[in-house]
Amino acid sequence: MTVSQIPYAQGISADFSRILFGPDAERIHEPWRRLFDGAGFAFQEGLGVQERTALSYQRLRVVNEAVPDPVALAADIESLTAMHEWAGVVDAGMATIASIHWNLHIGSLLDHDVQDRDLRPYARMESVGTFLCTELDHGNDAASLETTATFDPTTGGFVLDTPTSGACKWMPNTSGTGGAKTALVAARLLVRGTDHGVFLFRTPLTDGEGRHHPGVEVRPLPETASAPVDHCATYFHGVRLSFEAMLQGDHGRLTRDGVFSSTLGNPRKRFLRSVRRVHAGKLCMSAYSLGVTRHALAVAVRHSQRRLTSGMTTGRKVPLIAHRSHHAPLLSAIATAYAATLLHRDVVRRWTSGADAEHEETERLAAVAKAWITWQARAVMTECRERCGAQGLLLSNGIAYQLAANEGTVTAEGDNRVIWVKAAGEMLTGGFTPSPPSAVPAADRDLDDPDQLQELLADIERVWHGRARGRLRGGRRGDPLARWNGTVTPALELVEAHVHRLAAEALLRGAGAASGSPAGAVLGRLYRLFVLRQVKAHSGDLLAAGRITPDHVHRLPDVEEALIESLAPYAVPLTEGFAALEGVMGDHPMLAIPAPAAEMVPA
Question: Which residues lie across from 232 on neighbouring strands?
Fold first, then answer.
């Protein structure tokens, strides 16, 4: 069934779906929608953490059986990210281990020399793949990790060791739950006393019965507040690996007699090349957050359409959605969800079609977008949870469970704040040039003109870029930390302004793709709502810089209010455009209430 054939996604809702999911939705998204909307992925009440984790591994195997070519999936970034958009809605734990298995483990294998490797066992899921990089003492500074893989010239293999307690791998899914597991372990290659940097080593962890191999010590970690996954601290004590265990490529090769060569002279660059699949993982984390965010909005809006409350006259009942205090924050959240989804589509397209020369910039964009999207997901889902009251606290209603699990995406594949700090530094040292100011006088600025609104967003970028550059130039000489501390706050504001402009641009293109249609007109208003919230938040800076006038500042609240009023009748169709999993929606207890006969169009 295609999006256009879904009974509830007719008319303008179907147009919204086509904008969000693109012309290739049947190939990229529909297989996952059909799979995860089945009874096998229904929420199961009353399970403990271990039971829920075991269920996630069972479901992982169901997914593997449903995929025509499980190994090829790791190389198809469009389909892989689409899987994350739908998997997180039904099982956050399964989505997490699926991301580790397909993206980090199999994806890393494919990114290295694989001509001599038999990957067919992965297609049969004879072993679940996991990925061990960060350590207890080395998270965001993983390039400094301590685990060692020492070349043994007598056997031609390696000896894997955890030299200190702080070097234990933290916190991968390495328990015996789920059966046989194989890890890619990031470790320092030591050859005759020389440290050649960090590489990946394929390491069997458990057998088919979940028993750990000799030398592998695993300690379960306390329960987390995010997705139920078997997180553990993992130690290696003299684990012997074959020569083939090392993943090799142009960034690092070792002959069987211990001669090392690399096209990269910098050990840090070798490390980044070894774990480059983490960058694709940022796209996967963003996709998870987008999927659960859209689902939460679909749930919250449908609930507010069905739940009756008091009107303004005695005895009259109206749907919750009729109240401005209820639908205004949801409409703002819907605008964010559309902008974030379309931004993600842009980044994935760049990732899959960009030239190698642009890859570094694309990786930075994927990182910046991941942080913004996962943070926005937290804010939107929190709003949805609150709008549903006590019902929103029930895990079976599809918001609270996914909201808690989303916290993992904020930290996974690079902590959001650290990602932005790195991007900020790059943008200030040649990685970004602000666009020149518009020639349009401030008095002539039109808050209805999309081009001029985009110019205002560029003005906000320019303001923060100028502040950050000024701080950097005027910082304390001879004290790099103090100099950066004085720069980082406006630099982070620059990153936020930058990604917000790109998200608005993506939403504007989406509206343009439906130009001349009712859907295009609605998305144009949604775009303006999204942009004007940002303009209002920075109106003081824009006024001080002479980019808007006091009259604009006075008018902003009224313009925003008028947009919300005009969009209110479209809250339901806009969320129907998310093409939510109807089987899953039908299982949410709070949506079992029949739609009321009362008027549902907000006043």
Answer: 220
pTM, rounded to two decimals: 0.95
Cβ atoms within 10 Å of 12's Cβ, excluding its own: 19
The pair phi, psi for residue 157, each rounded to 5°, is -115, -155
Count of CB atoms situated within 10 Å of the CB of 533: 16
User: Is the alpha carbon torsion for 157, 162, 167, 169 positive or negative?
Assistant: positive
User: 453-497 pLDDT, tens per residue?
Assistant: 999 999 999 999 999 999 999 988 899 999 999 999 999 999 999
pLDDT digits (tens, 9 = 90+) for 286-341: 999 999 999 999 999 999 999 999 988 888 999 999 999 999 999 999 999 999 99
The C-alpha atoms of residue 9 and residue 2 are separated, in whole angstroms, by 10
Interstrand relation of 157-161 and 216-220 (parallel, antiparallel or unpaired):
unpaired
Characterize 342-379 residue by residue with b for buried, 16 or more Cβ atoms within 10 angstroms of its Cβ, and e for exposed.
bbbbbbbebbeeeeeeeeeebbbbbbbbbbbbbbbbbe
The pLDDT of 420-432, averaged and rounded, is 95
Residue 42: CB partners within 8 Å, gap ≥ 6?
90, 583, 584, 587
CB 358 within 8 A of CB 5: no
DSSP string, 49-117: HHHHHHHHHHHHHHHHHHSS-HHHHTT-HHHHHHHHHHHHHH-HHHHHHHIIIIIIIIHHHHHS--TT-
Structure tokens at 521: 């007109």
- Strands in 216-220's sheet, in edge-to-edge order, are 169-173, 231-236, 216-220
d(CA 196, CA 271): 10
How sure is the predictor about 431, in pLDDT bands with cuts at 50, 70 and 90?
A: confident
From CA 601, how far away is CA 529, in angstroms rounded?
Answer: 19
